Request: fold
Amino acid sequence: MTRLKGKVALITGAGQGVGQGIAYALAAEGARIAVVGRTAGKLDETCAEIRRRGGEAQPFVADVMVKDDIERCVAQVAEHFGGINVLVNNAQVVPLGRLLDVTDEAFMQGIDSGPLATMRLMRACYPHLRGDGAVVNCVSSAAVRWDASGYGHYAAVKEAIRSLTRAAACEWGVDGIRVNAIAPHAMSPGMAGWVAERPDEAAAFFKTIPLQRVGDCEKDIGRAVAMIVSADAGYLTGATIPLDGGQAYWG
Reply:
């Protein structure tokens, strides 16, 4: 498993959940991992596990909602590893709730941590990605839910990321940069919290997944991302890949 040997991957929100699973999977394929997030302790745990498995990883503390943090982090990663080949935008503050309940402040946190952070990170990494780079942005099937109640703000934030993903793919393809989005369902801490908070809704939701299970952060989501950013998917760009067991129908 060395199809990413020599590559450097910067992954946000890699201290837990989906980001951590992606970090493990890409490291298993030989990538050197820049583990990025706000909480140093969680980043250290992810790095320790990657190293225990024989991989290479380095933690970088940064808040994706702070522009200066993004620029500093990207510069530090490029200096430490000698470049950046893969960017995974995973970190996100999730603004859940009904339209009359979600505050402007909560919605703007979703914007700042989602499409704005995604755009800033892609811009900052662009010079390093030119030639043979890959970007994966995490989105959601919330926009195509059978019942969008309580998910309007979240869907709006994630659909903005999908639009930026498509634009980047079209604009940067000539530069040798592929840009795709994934819409995963995985048993992350966020998903586990949602299941605990809304058990009836969660039970109904699980029944709509053809494969009858929620994905594993590393085996189901991480390994798919490893393929997407590798040469095996060298002709894939501008797409949204629903890693959700067949649940969503994008139409």
The chain has eight helices and seven strands. The radius of gyration is 17 Å. Helices lie at 17-28, 40-52, 67-81, 104-129, 152-172, 189-197, 199-207, 217-228. The chain has one domain: 8-187+217-237.
